[in-house]
Amino acid sequence: MDYSQFLNMLPEVALTALLIIVFVVDFAFSRSQRRHSALFVATVLPLAALTALCFVAEPSSAFGSLYVSTPAAGVMKVILTGGTLVVVIMSQEWLSRPEVRRYEGEYYILLLSTLLGMYFMMSSAHFLLFFLALEMASVPLACLVAFGKGSHLSAEAAAKFILTATFSSGVMLYGISFIYAHAGTLYFADVVNSLEASPLTIMGLVFFFSGLGFKISLVPFHLWTADTYQGAPTPVTAYLSVVSKGAAAFTLMVILHKVFAPLISSWELLLAVVIMLSVTVANLFALRQRELKRFMAFSSISQAGYVMLAVLGTTVAATPALSYYVLVYVAANLGVFTIISLVEQRCGTTRIDSYSGFYRTNPRLTLLLTLALFSLAGIPPFAGMFSKFFVFMAAVSRTHSLLAWITVFVALINTVVSLYYYLIVVKAMYISPTDRPLPAISGSGAIRVALALCTAGIILFGIFGCVYSWIEAAAM
Prior knowledge:
Largest sheet: 2 strands, antiparallel
Helix content: over 70%
């Protein structure tokens, strides 16, 4: 074996080394010494992101082109690593609890294992490597969902997650077997050269799309999302909602554009219908929610529809639009979940009506939560408005596609609906009367850092166009 090939996948090697070091530290050191592993992880994760950034400018491959790293994948790795860093920082408040503190090392190991699987998934050029990477990302996620060992909701959420994940994996494998039966190969480049429309390949496309649609929480593959988000520990829910979803959305875009390009007339219709269902159904169900984590679950389903909207466009337009949307979504959604986690740890509630009068006792947290919700809704001048604009423009970049224009029109209408239900939370904080508002809450240093990073992203990513320009240049 030519071990020099590992140098072509340096981001994965760096993350694997970090994973091993965290395991050794957790195994060999005392509990008080293990507390420093959080600082170590938070310090080294940006270095892993910078390592991935070094590979943005130059594509590379390894192991018979099973692994192919592209500049666009490098950009997405940087974005997801940054999101994981924020999750690690915001988790410190929760990890300081006595019932969780002893499992801190396992939490970091599972988190990094999932991220490593996503790295390989985004750089795979072979269906076998793709499937192994997907399972490497999914199985640790089930353990993370079940991390709240004292909560029956966490156990229930993990059971639903692993059962639906197993079923979706089986459906996806079934679809891949159809593609292999037709093409006789699992290499992406060879499949696209031999692929043609037939009942066998169409069924393979549908089954494959259904399996990956589960990972992204697209309607009608979304039924696990609300229960899992509610039952999982809040930092894990935050990780599920942004990092996991971003990697799956990027991978699906790459495979649809590069592997299933000959079947574009089939998957374009399928994707458009799923997008319209996702943004509409999720928005209608979000209106009925009174529990904030379930509310954010349906919000994430709707946001997944907007993310996939970019895939309807050309590859040149879709790649930077989707990557930029994920970047902005990471900042806004993690900002919301950081505040939800803080309030849950200090006050033990995640109900929306508990936030009534929140402005009177916690004006700063209220302001930050309002900014994050406004960005998710796409209100100018926050970054969420620009991200929605770019995915809309990407979707209609195929000027001949009437279907894309119809899908964008439906998404625009649903943007108004989403604004209404985001304002429900804002109304509770500023207007809804209550005699017993939540007490004043003071966040720890880690919480303040996480909120500062998220708020900076919400404001600055929209103001400085160089961020989108950098993503666009890397995706060319």
